[in-house]
Amino acid sequence: MSPSKALNRKNAAVIGGGPAGLIAAETLARAGVAVTIYDQMPSLGRKLLMAGRGGLNLTHSEPLADFLKRYGDADERLLDAVTAFPPAALRAWADELGTDTFVGSSGRVFPKALKTSPLLRTWLLRLRNLGVTVKVRHRWEGWDDDGQLVFKSGGEKASVKPDVVVLAMGGASWPKLGSDARWVDILRAEKVAVAPLQAANCGFTTAWSDVLRGFAGQPLKRIAVTFGERSVRGEAMVTQTGIEGGAIYALSSPIRDAVTRHGATTITIDLLPDVTAAKLAERLSAPRGKQSLSNFLRKNTHLAAVALSLLHEAALAKGKPLSALSPPQIAALIKAVPVKLAGVQPIERAISSAGGIRFSELDAHFMLGKSRGVFVAGEMLDWDAPTGGYLLQASFATGVAAAKGALAWLAGSRE
Question: What pLDDT score was predicted for residue 289?
Fold first, then answer.
């Protein structure tokens, strides 16, 4: 895109230095707009760096039609943004940065280096080369009576009046990394409708026994978690207060909603999803001899100690010790261990948050109807998605969409 002379005379403020804000800044700067990024933290991309600790999952390789279904009943504008800037576009963008990507065995897409820091370092260099100004330790306080943006930095206040604004301050998860959702009160004071922020891709609490609490930090590997009609394979981890992990996160939205409505709900865990109940019953019908039940189960199922403890506890919750159950009953329990979840982990510990600015407040170009020239992107918007690359993809896509909306508005066009 070649910068136009008209846009060269325009300037933009992007508030928030995460993926949505940075890609919005890049899109605006490439069009010739003078961009300043404001962030309240000492450096940019802190939550992105955290997300990449175990390998930066940029997006997913599944067909776009299936990809879009992962956003559930999300507003059409979110789906349109992802369609306009799909996984293939995000991978091409990363490749252009010199960050080659690959598709993992699960279909997830990662940088070949796996880490976030090389990508972020190169990206920030690109932004500097595009003339983007960065102002860190600048906390947004809202607007003054003259419609200027007000920032607080080092005890001092500063006001600016850009031609266009992109808000991309994230949700409410991991507030120590910058996403503290202070913007909610600011925008509600401006009569902007904001859906309550809730934990997403989160863990849940349950009343473990002292024995199971002793396994805190231990993984349940190669399991399948079922809630309602959905079943997800993966891993989970026992914590002091409950359970978390990839297989739990993938189902967290419906689980969260059920816990919120009813105060508690129950999931089932298949500890051996690759073995049928009939085959298990056959194995467990073998003579035990003088072996303890725990040793017998360990040798015949290869279940880890944490899984066996979970099995024992589930049997007791049903009213009988595991030793009183028949081989088919034990097999059935292994295939569907019930776990009652009584609460949602705090939003501060969640991977992401759901809720945010309602799409009814936006036009088709992600502009706030109540604030002309103010656009919104990323987790500030009211959408929800599982982990697996869907979160970052939508953050990038809405950042691009908001920036393109801002460019059209600056140019006086709605094409």
Answer: 86
Q: What is the extent of the structural domain holding 12?
A: 5-199+351-410
CATH number reported for the structural domain that contains residue 50 in this entry: 3.50.50.60
Q: What is the mean pLDDT of residues 147-155?
A: 95
Do the domain assignments include residue 415? no
- CB environment 202-227: b (16+ within 10 A), e (fewer): bbbbbebeeebeebeebebeebbbbb
In contact, 372 and 60? CB cutoff 8 Å: no
Residue 60: closest CA among 82, 80, 84, 45: 82
pTM: 0.90
What sections of 198-239 are H helices per DSSP? 210-213
Domain count for the chain, please give it: 2
Q: Give the pLDDT confidence score for residue 415 in this predicted structure.
A: 39
My answer on whether 67 and 191 are in the same domain is yes
pLDDT digits (tens, 9 = 90+) for 46-64: 999 988 787 899 999 999 9
* Mean of pLDDT values over 220-239: 95
Residue (of 355, 352, 361) closest to 389 by Cα position = 352
Q: Which of 153, 187, 164 is nearest to 39 (CA)?
A: 153
